[in-house]
Amino acid sequence: MRLFIIKSDPLLKKNILIAFSIILICTVQNVAYSQESDTLHIAKDSTDVFFEKITLDGNVAYKNEKTNEVISESEYHILCAPVMEVSFKVKEEHDHIDDYWRSDKINPYRDVKINVPFQIKFDQTTFTHPVDDDIVITSRFGRRRRGAHRGLDIDLVTGDFVRSVLPGKVRFVGYSKGHGKTVVVRHSNDVETVYAHLSAYTVRTNDSIPEGQIVGFGGNTGNSRGSHLHLEVRFKGICIHPEYVFNFDGSKTIRGENLWVSNSWKSPKMHSSYRKSKIVPLFSEEDAIASQDAEPRQHKVRKGDTLYQIALKYSLRVKEICSMNNISQNSILSIGQIIQIR
Ligand SMILES: [Zn+2]
Q1: Who's near 51: CB < 8 A, 6+ residues apart?
Q2: N or C: the chain end with fewer CB closer than 10 Å?
Q3: Residue 102, Cβ neighbours under 10 Å: how many?
């Protein structure tokens, strides 16, 4: 079976897109595609679906043999569009892009030690939104009730296109218990973007893809409640706060061509998944080190402080403060008491 992907054409007429989206939502969930001779063949839950070529009002059209739904010739051609061949020019200084190139693991860097702060470089200043609708963030990088949330959750409807935010090369296409159906794209600066909870894939491992390439359809697979995209930004296996790198305020800008990542921007503990963090990009190693040194380590109890308020202030859980300080949740705090918060 040969997989194909749908061409990402920025000039695609909106009405075709809407019609196509409706077809997708109606007919495409957990599907794989193949094209054999003149008939589009969609395998859905091991049931084959064929489109029959017909004539409708003198025009060529295609009928879904299963649902009898008729689509126009142009819609059919969008469905049949071949893999977009775009060469991925890897610059000489990025020859190491193939280091740790494994297609069987979401994170192949488990044995790699990265010291903070570290620098990530971009050779472009803008990116493409991973979904076509307005960005609605439902959960951020940070502390969440059940633990750390290392990505950004973006609302979508199952079947919506999910696009690569930057050009790159597809390293991983596969299922994991937590992430569900997942695509990992490695970019030329060794940053990887992870697209999780998809309902279907539209790229294959080792595909070189342009920015905005549709990598799959949104869904609700894996450990997910309700359809959404879980987007991660990683550097050599370390998850970085996606909003520290990409500006989701509508400007579609990358926050800097030379960004320094300090401890805080890789630690979900330092953020709340329910609140937007204040983002001040770091452009030099000195600033990154100074910022790390300035991160508070202790809290001195003042009049009226409660464990709950302290937890809220530092985006921690009461339970964590208790274990760090070896105290119980019912402990009475005294004024001047030092509470470790890192
Ligand atoms: Zn998530």
Answers
A1: 39, 40, 62, 63, 64, 65, 71, 76, 79
A2: N
A3: 12
Q: Ligand 1 center to residue 339 CA distance, Å? A: 30
CA 43 remoteness from chain centre: 26
Residues 206 and 335 in one domain: no
Tokens of 213: 């390439």
Residue 86 inside a domain? The answer is no
Whole domain around residue 312: which residue ranges? 298-340
Q: Domain check: are 310 and 225 in the same one?
A: no
**Per residue of the chain (342 residues), what is the pLDDT tens digit?**
333 334 444 444 444 545 454 444 444 433 444 433 334 444 433 334 567 888 888 888 888 777 787 878 776 665 654 434 333 444 444 455 678 999 999 999 988 888 999 999 999 999 999 999 999 999 999 988 767 899 999 999 999 999 999 999 999 999 998 999 999 999 999 999 999 999 999 999 999 999 999 999 999 999 999 999 999 999 999 999 999 999 999 999 999 999 999 999 999 988 889 999 999 999 999 999 999 888 878 889 999 999 998 888 776 788 889 988 999 999 899 999 999 887
246 closest CA partner among 145, 172, 163: 163
Looking at the structure of the chain, the number of domains it has is 3
- 236 and 280: one domain? yes
Contact 193, 232 (CB under 8 A): yes
Residue 221 lies in a domain: yes
The two tokens of residue 15 are 């009405």
The residue type found at 180 is G
φ/ψ (deg, to 5) at 259: -100, 135
User: 3-state class of 312 per DSSP?
Assistant: helix
Residue 168 Cα to ligand 1 midpoint, Å, equals: 22
- The CA 230 to ligand 1 mean position distance, Å, reads 4
